[in-house]
Design goal:
Elements: H1 3-12, H2 20-29, H3 31-34, H4 38-54, E1 56-59, H5 67-78, E2 94-98, E3 102-110, E4 115-123, E5 125-127, E6 133-136, H6 137-145, H7 153-163, H8 181-200, H9 215-228, H10 230-236, H11 238-248
Helix pairs in contact: 2-5, 4-5, 5-7, 7-9, 9-10, 10-11
């Protein structure tokens, strides 16, 4: 059987249910999931089972991945999928988990001069189009300990994956029929520009300055805030908060 056939069989096989004891334990350790109402928690369990069934986890270095950590990642990755269903998990398979921060070598080609420069970035997460999701396990653990601080690496990278369903990330994921695309683009762009100006003037901002790096980072960072610090997001950017509420559904923090 080819690799493709093996993966196809994996996707078509019945989804194994999550063990009751493991699920109950995970709910006590993953506050964002534990805060959901009963119907959404029930559907989250189904989505997390689908996620675990269709993804392959790879522990790198001395990262230790047991059933709990795989489920904790699956639960948080499934939160943004609650209104959309398992179809948003398509297009990629692997999750690479480092014990902590990891380095990525970047190459930049300057078109006018033809000069190629290389640099190393230290990251806690990354998502590749049609490629893996990469996570720092230490930072996943930190997010469980401080769930309401506006930061969540799994949700950040899952937002990028949703964004990439329409091609290269640009901050505009495929939108459901109830959200006007022109309104989304306009509100997100205005919020991004306001943040970029404030960061350029070295002002303190409610939204993490990293969101000013690019429109796709603005979407991912504000997605983190929607799930873990929505009140601050509503105060800083009410139009953006309203659109994310329509896209993701009510925040578990509300």
């Amino acid at each position: 059987m080819s690799v493709f056939q093996s993966l196809l069989a994996r996707f078509r096989a019945p989804v194994p249910p999550i063990d009751d004891t493991l699920w109950a334990h995970a709910l006590t350790r993953v506050p964002l999931a534990n805060a959901l109402d009963a119907p959404r928690a029930h559907y989250l369990r189904q989505l997390a089972a689908s996620f675990l069934h269709t993804k392959r986890f790879h522990a790198l270095g001395d990262a230790s991945l047991d059933d709990f950590w795989r489920l904790a990642i699956a639960m948080q990755a499934s939160l943004p999928a609650l209104p959309h269903g398992p179809k948003v998990f398509k297009g990629w398979t692997n999750i690479l988990v480092y014990p902590g921060e990891f380095n990525v070598r970047r190459s930049h080609h300057d078109a006018p001069t033809g000069v190629i420069t290389e640099s190393d970035d230290t990251l806690i997460g990354e998502a590749w189009e049609r490629g893996p999701m990469i996570l720092s396990l230490a930072d996943v653990a930190l997010d469980l300990e401080a769930p309401w601080d506006g930061v969540n690496v799994v949700i950040h990278e899952m937002a990028h994956k949703l964004d990439m369903l329409a091609g290269p990330a640009n901050g505009v994921p495929p939108l459901p029929g109830g959200i006007n695309r022109r309104e989304w683009i306009g509100s997100m762009q205005q919020g991004f520009e306001r943040l970029s100006k404030a960061v350029g003037r070295r002002r303190k901002t409610a939204i993490d300055p990293y969101a000013a790096e690019a429109p796709e980072e603005y979407f991912a960072v504000t997605s983190e805030m929607h799930f873990s610090q929505p009140a601050l997001l509503r105060e800083a950017e009410p139009d953006v908060a309203r659109l994310l509420d329509a896209y993701y559904g009510p925040s578990p923090a509300d």
